């Protein structure tokens, strides 16, 4: 991934303009002096916008609820502690699909900025990190009863000149072990679904949720999305990027690397499912999105009392 052609670096020695932060109506927005910005709703700690090169990189449905009445349809909803419909006879069974993190009110813990080496030795790039927290005591009564564990989550959203990074720390603050799944449900904004290919999945095993969860091996080095697609790719090397590339010139549009997250879900609802989702719109917007979702969802992470786990993703965009 190349860095932005825009003036994305700041000369060393000059007094550095600082990132800006605005907090209004439970929405946090941070911008870098070089123009990149990120917006996070405290509801779900959902990233709802990531702009670079003046362009929106994330898809958000026009019909998405933004009033806290339903999980946000687009951006990066955070899935925790269960992915999909909870299994039967499991401790997560009373929870809703994808758990409670995306439909809970998080707190903003603060912003920190740092300087990272720029693209050459004369330059320094600024980054800004926003931290969000959720703990057992902050959940609704209903969620607290449904998942009775003492936990602490810290979700960090880091904006750099050429990437957006999201990472989650999960702490077990109680006396009992607990199990969880986690997924960063990223909706990437694309011009048209027919113009992209998903790369980095060849020879990997996946469960196809559109075919009763059966197991298959990916044969394509560059997957075209031509129908409803809902696949859990498993046992990926997190350091090898999953790339959304242009079908026309093979140039990467997005590149997603992970840490501690070995599964990647590729999802596009296609025509009928898009129409059936009340909060998805316009109907044909399925053409303008591809979800590449970094997670740990095939099995369960077990966290012993007093222990912590961390995982995350870094998304680079062509711009
Ligand atoms: O409608 P929801 O709950 O946001 O889920 C959207 C999709 O999320 C994906 O991660 C799942 O693999 C799909 O099966 C699901 O349909």
TrEMBL record:
The active site is at residues 185, 293. It is an enzyme of class 5 (isomerase). InterPro entries: Aldose_1/G6P_1-epimerase, G6P_1-epimerase, Gal_mutarotase_sf_dom, GH-type_carb-bd. One of its GO terms (molecular function) is carbohydrate binding. Its EC number is 5.1.3.15. Gene3D superfamilies: 2.70.98.10. It comes from the Eukaryota. Keywords: Isomerase. It catalyses: alpha-D-glucose 6-phosphate = beta-D-glucose 6-phosphate. Substrate binds at residues 73, 97, 102. Catalyzes the interconversion between the alpha and beta anomers from at least three hexose 6-phosphate sugars (Glc6P, Gal6P, and Man6P). Belongs to the glucose-6-phosphate 1-epimerase family. This is Glucose-6-phosphate 1-epimerase. The lineage of its organism: Eukaryota, Fungi, Dikarya, Ascomycota, Pezizomycotina.
């Amino acid at each position: 991934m190349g860095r932005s052609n825009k003036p994305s670096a700041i000369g060393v020695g000059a007094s550095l303009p600082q990132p800006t932060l605005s907090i209004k109506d439970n929405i946090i927005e941070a911008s870098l002096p070089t123009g990149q910005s990120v917006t996070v709703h405290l509801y779900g700690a959902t990233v709802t916008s990531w702009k670079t090169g003046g362009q929106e990189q994330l898809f958000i449905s026009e019909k998405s609820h933004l009033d806290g009445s339903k999980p946000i349809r687009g951006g990066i909803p955070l899935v925790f502690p269960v992915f999909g419909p909870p299994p039967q006879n499991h401790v997560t069974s009373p929870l809703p699909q994808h758990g409670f993190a995306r439909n809970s009110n998080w707190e903003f813990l603060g912003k920190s900025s740092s300087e990272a080496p720029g693209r050459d030795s004369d330059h320094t790039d600024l980054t800004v990190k926003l931290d969000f927290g959720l703990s057992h005591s902050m959940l609704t009564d209903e969620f607290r009863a449904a998942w009775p564990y003492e936990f602490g989550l810290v979700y960090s959203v880091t904006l750099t000149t050429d990437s957006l990074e999201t990472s989650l720390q999960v702490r077990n603050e109680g006396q009992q072990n607990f199990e969880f799944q986690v997924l960063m449900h990223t909706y990437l904004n694309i011009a048209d679904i027919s113009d992209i290919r998903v790369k980095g999945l060849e020879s990997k095993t996946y469960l196809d949720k559109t075919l009763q969860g059966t197991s298959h091996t990916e044969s394509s080095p560059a997957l075209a999305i031509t129908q409803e697609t809902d696949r859990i790719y498993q046992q990926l090397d997190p350091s090898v990027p999953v790339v959304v590339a242009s079908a026309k010139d093979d140039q990467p549009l997005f590149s997603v690397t992970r840490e501690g997250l070995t599964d990647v879900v590729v999802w596009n609802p296609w025509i009928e499912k898009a129409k059936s989702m009340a909060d998805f719109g316009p109907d044909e917007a399925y053409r303008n999105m591809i979800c590449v979702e970094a997670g740990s969802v095939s099995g369960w992470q077990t966290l012993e009392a007093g222990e912590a786990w961390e995982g995350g993703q870094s998304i680079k965009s062509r711009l």
